[in-house]
Amino acid sequence: MSYTLALTFADGVTRFIDCNPGETVLDAAYRQRINLPMDCSDGVCGTCRCHCEKGDYALGEDYLEDALSASEAAEGQVLTCQMTVTSDCVLRVPVPAARCKTGVATYQASVAGLEHLGDAAIALRLTLDHAPDFLPGQYMNLEVPGSGQTRAYSFSSRPGEATASFLIKQVPGGLMSGWLAQARIGDQLHLSGPLGSFFLREVSRPLLFLAGGTGLAPFLSMLAVLAERGCGQPIQLLYGVTRDEDLVLVDELEAFTRRLPGLRILTCVADPTTRHPHQGYVTRHLPAQALNGGDVDIYLCGPPPMVDSVRQYLAEQGVEPASFHYEKFTPTVVTTGNVA
Q1: Phi first, then psi: what are they for 95, rounded to 5°?
Q2: Measuring CA to CA, which residue among 132, 138, 196 is closest to residue 164?
Q3: Are 185 and 112 in contact (CB under 8 A)?
Q4: How far is CA 148 from the centre of its chain?
Q5: 3-state secondary structure of 319
Q6: Phi then psi for 256, rounded to 5 degrees?
Q7: Whether residue 261 has a cis bond before it, omega within 30° of 0
Q8: Angular region, 311: left φ>0, alpha ψ -120 to 50, beta rest
Q9: Which long-range contacts (CB under 8 A, 24 or more apart) does 305-312 make?
Q10: 12: Cβ–Cβ under 8 A, 6 or more apart, which residues?
Q11: What does 116-167 look like in DSSP terms, one character per residue?
Q12: Helix (H, G, I), strand (E, B) or coil at 289
């Protein structure tokens, strides 16, 4: 039996490797041609220090305090030359992937399904030449056929599914939108990834999900994983859009409430002429109990003004969440950030 280890690098690249029982993470990575930072490999220098964000492991006792202090170890810092895993793990590596002689994975894909959700978005399903490993919340770069350019889209499907799904905003005159308007089942395209530090961590406290527009996509992936595994913590999802027509896949969201008893969903529309019962931005409808006095993990995905507005709102409320993970996007750019 081996375990799966996700290595998330400083430049957003994620690579997945297998790690055998009793094998150090450093050796497992080297066996799979990924040269993690290392000088001594004996627990002396501390060069191989990384941070374990999820999973169970052992460090043993054969390393120096100067290389890793007890307080650092208590915070999840590890030495990969000493670390052996006892479960699947997510490990944050503090250098770019290229420094470790690795890079982003590439895939050949074909269109398996296209659903036009009015003029708001397109639900795209792709069949890939081999199933991609990714963390729920991460994204891929999709090459627009014939253009030589890529666009970044978050997975809306969960890891391990036969097809990969994406929720793509329809942008008038947009490069990807234009290609999808004439795409057919079976059309080919290339992908690269997974990428991004916006992904679901270990769940140990209430969750607050804030989605803006097609920023709903990564939350569909996260909810699918939580529904599959089960979740004992309350989950509040606020989904805000500009127009009534931009509210998509609401039935799919409601289906998750039957699988996740602790899930509560609230939608809102910013358009002042809407007849939707919740008019305004998500900050207007954010229930105080969802912030849980700061003992909450917040995940936010939406356009830059929404991200900035939520951050300002939290500061005004004097709430410092236990963790705050966000991803802000424009039609061509994705930026991720984490505030612990």
Answers
A1: -140, 160
A2: 132
A3: yes
A4: 25
A5: coil
A6: -65, -25
A7: no
A8: alpha
A9: 306/210, 306/212, 306/215, 306/240, 306/281, 306/282, 309/281, 309/283, 310/210, 310/282, 310/283
A10: 195, 196, 197, 336
A11: EETTTEEEEEEEESSPPP--TT-EEEEEETTTTEEEEEEB-SPTT-SSEEEE
A12: helix
pLDDT tens per residue across span 315-340 = 999 999 999 999 977 666 566 666 55
Please report the domains of the chain, with CATH numbers, ordered by start residue.
3-100 (3.10.20.30), 105-195 (2.40.30.10), 207-339 (3.40.50.80)
Average pLDDT over residues 42-57: 94
For tokens 């014939």, name the residue: 146
Question: Quick check: 194 and 158 in contact, CB under 8 A?
Answer: no
Tokens 């996740």 correspond to 260
CA distance 42 to 27: 12
What b/e string do you get for 134-147 counting C-beta neighbours within 10 Å, with b at 16 or more? bbbbbbbbbbbeee
**Terminus-to-terminus CA distance in the chain, angstroms?**
33
Measured between alpha carbons, how far is 269 from 238 in angstroms, rounded to an integer?
11
* pTM exceeds 0.70 for this model: yes
pLDDT digits (tens, 9 = 90+) for 127-137: 998 888 999 99
Helix ranges, 275-334 (H): 288-291, 304-317
**Digit-coded pLDDT (tens) for 263-274:** 999 999 999 999
Rounded-to-integer distance, Cα 30 and Cα 134, Å: 21
Task: Show the tokens assigned to 151.
Answer: 């666009």
**Total residue length of the chain:** 340
pLDDT, tens digit, 9 for 90 and up, residues 274-314: 999 999 999 999 988 899 999 999 999 999 999 999 999 99
3-state helix, strand, coil in the chain (%, to 5): 25, 35, 40
Closest CA to 296 of 238, 212, 233: 233
